[in-house]
Structures
1.
Amino acid sequence: MPDATPPAGFGRPDLTTFARLDGLGLAVTGHRLEPDRAVLACRVVEPDRWCHDCGGEGRARDTVVRRLAHEPLGWRPTMLEVVVRRYRCRECGHVWRQDTTAAAEPRAKLSRGGLRWALTGIVVQHLTVARVAEGLGVAWDTANNAVLPRASAC
Ligand SMILES: [Zn+2]
């Protein structure tokens, strides 16, 4: 019978840590491999269920999906589809979304990992914006708008 126990020094396979999403407050719940990209379905690890206005308890209402371009893995663009919960406060009716600032800046289209990859590509490896956009699987404008303010500060 073949022995499937990993040799010493190996952990169990874990997409969340492999894709470096544990540091972004996300956990992978599924993956879909398409011909030209990989898509990782993620959930936000921290619940964030207390009202941002009055501190009352929120009731989970529904979810929205936030799409982010992440660092490419194996030269294949890797996209995140993050399921974000929306809550409504039982006390005051305030509605909010689960905090995803660990994963990406507000309104950003790149994850923090994707942004770091893009900046390293441009500043350290002297890749063009076009090459970085191709790696991330995003439009040129999206890559340029994300990196331009930061690359000039490096
Ligand atoms: Zn409230």
2.
Amino acid sequence: MPKIMEMDSSQVAEAAAQGALCIAVIGCGWMGLPTALLFAETGAKVIGVVKSEEEASLLNQGIATVAEPGIEPLLRKHVESGRFKVTLDAANAASQADAILIIVPTHVGRGKKPDYSAIVDASRNVGRGLMKGSLVIVESTVGPGVTEEVVKFELEEVSGLKAGVDFGLAYSPIRASAGRVFRDLTSYPRILAGFDERSFHAASSLLSLIVKGGIIKVKDIKTAEAVKLFENIYRDVNIALVNQLALFCEAAGIDVVEAINAANTQPFCHLHRPGMGVGGHCLPSNPYFLLEKARKLKVNLDLVRAARRINDSMPFHTIKLITAALRSCGKTLKGSHVAILGVSFKEEVKEHRYSPSIYVAERLMRRGVKISIYDPFFTPEELSVPGVRIAPTLESCVEGVDCILLAVAHEKFKSLDLNLLAKLVKMPAALVDGRQVIDPIKAREAGFVYAGIGRGLVVA
Ligand SMILES: NC(=O)c1ccc[n+]([C@@H]2O[C@H](COP(=O)([O-])OP(=O)(O)OC[C@H]3O[C@@H](n4cnc5c(N)ncnc54)[C@H](O)[C@@H]3O)[C@@H](O)[C@H]2O)c1
């Protein structure tokens, strides 16, 4: 069989279908595991690489380590068929693979500086096993320049091979969101850039096996790296804008939801929804990847920085609303008991990394508040937040509390029986809506003091 760099797209598809193509996926988390399984579905042999023995052991037993809908049966299927195996040894996986996908985490560390240590580690390990004629595709989210300045450098240094001559190199960001990863990975158009033309074609042939939404070629790798950051910065800035407008609405006595819904009937207006904080893996970190590059280029991206600052301030604003609502009940923050409904970083998802709920809970506890949390996506055994009681049911969470904070717009919370909740809490009690889910009039009719982001303390 020719090397992947020499194949055309039909040969790549045929090799996969015959089980003759081997793909190493370095990093099998929220994005890497679904990607690996989609490739296993094409018939390819897939070697997953992870960082911990426990993770490898679970995956090799067919037990999913991420709660992405639809993942368990696919994982079991491909573990049983032998098409998907997981190891800690990236060098060995790379030495067997025609193509290597790097999908390891990228974070911000101290001082909000990008932390590319997993990318460096993965690249070095892949470099140890990299073979002539193989293709490396970086899919982690990174700042412009990282694939060529960091990944390429490490691969070449460790392997002694040359990108574009001995091996192919490409960058293609993952545009999927937790909770709908399979759909997004297959249906969204995929941004792709190659280090050279051959790399682009090989990567395009490979990704086309799973991507049905088409491949969008961009001129070079740094452009592809920037595209992913632009998408998330657009959302972060949009949310920061509506968060500021929400604060204005609170002061002006305007209902932010009514105003945004009406404004969005203008075809060029696409305002998002304000909220008590922006969580998740991407939005709180990705802007800093671009800001770091801009700093080196001496370009001022004030707006991007301001958006981060505004969004990071929303949990504190939420605490102000809780304080004001409790005061209206004749109670103080210190010594009160607050029930937080929802811990996921966004609605309908079982993922609580970088959750604004936990951030708010921790800050409230520092101020002498007792916290209970309930989230329908988690059992108490699956959650552990030091000092917080994780309630098994909604009713047990709100029983005897002074304030309910609605933190996540899960479907279950959109049809709350406010009259029942009013019987369970310690009246007078506050209902603080961090996601504009609850009708302020209905909350007041049920006997609550209501406050909401973009609505403020509704007293009349
Ligand atoms: N989670 C999202 O919603 C999302 C969406 C789009 C893009 N992304 C990007 O995708 C990339 C991966 O994110 P994720 O959410 O899948 O991460 P994750 O934390 O869920 O999973 C990380 C995986 O990488 C492995 N890993 C960590 N360090 C490693 C190393 N040095 N060598 C080999 N394996 C290593 C871990 O064992 C784990 O399997 C990141 O760059 C992220 O920004 C994430």
